[in-house]
Amino acid sequence: MDKEKTVIFLAAGGRRYEAGMIELVLRTTESSGLVKEQILARLDGGQALPDADPVLEYSGLCIDSLRHQASYQGQEISLTENYEFHTLAYLASQPGRVYTKEQIYQAVWKEEPVDVSSAVFCIIRNIRQKLREVTTKEYIQTVWGVGYKFVDVPGE
Q1: In angstroms, rounded to a whole number, what is the distance separating the alpha carbons of residues 31 and 10?
Q2: Looking at residues 9-32, what average pLDDT do you find?
Q3: Rounded distance, CA 64 to CA 89, Å?
Q4: 88-104 tens-digit pLDDT
Q5: Which residues contact 78 (CB under 8 A, 6 or more apart)?
Q6: How far is CA 64 from CA 59, 74, 75, in A?
Q7: Degrees (nearest 5) of the Cα angle 70, 118, 85?
Q8: How many CA atoms lie within 13 A of 24 on its CB side?
């Protein structure tokens, strides 16, 4: 029986790729062992994606990715640039989606996840504390045994 194996993957860095370039690659391995690759898309990792909304707004909470600022009803929330702001923006980019601690760590720290539980827990706790200084809304919810999700909380 002839079988063909198809894999779609992201590739970045290394000798073959320009700095900051990310490619979406379709790799097909035929039963004969012949491997074919086709580039489906090429993205500049240093540039924001054109269809990404630079300002996210949810029931009083505003997350401005261009200015790297978060505010609630106009009152600025003082978040650390590297971890707190990026974690909040990452979670808020897809409300309702549950992210594992490993996914959050990899997206924000940009490293392979190794013993990430305490690092992510601390950042989430800090964000929640800072949000509680300006609102009683709980935008970040824990999904026990899985991770965290961002939810839009209407009213107060």
Answers
A1: 23
A2: 60
A3: 8
A4: 999 999 999 999 998 99
A5: 130
A6: 14, 12, 13
A7: 10
A8: 4
What CA dihedral angle connects 47, 48, 49 and 51, to 10 degrees? -140
User: Predicted confidence band at 82 (pLDDT cuts at 50, 70, 90)?
Assistant: confident
What six digits make up the tokens of 115? 């013993």
9 forms beta bridges with: 25
Which residues are within 8 A (CB) of 14 and not within 5 positions of it... i.e. 6 or more apart?
none
3-state secondary structure 15-67: CCCCCCEEEEEEEEECCCCCEEEEEEEEEECCCCCCCCCCEEEECCEEEECCC
Our measurement of the distance from residue 133's CA atom to the centroid of its chain's CA atoms, rounded to an integer in Å, reads: 25
Phi/psi of residue 134, each to 5°? -120, -15
Q: What is the pLDDT of residues 121-140, one digit of tens each?
A: 999 999 999 999 999 999 99
Position 28 confidence tier, pLDDT thresholds 50, 70, 90: confident
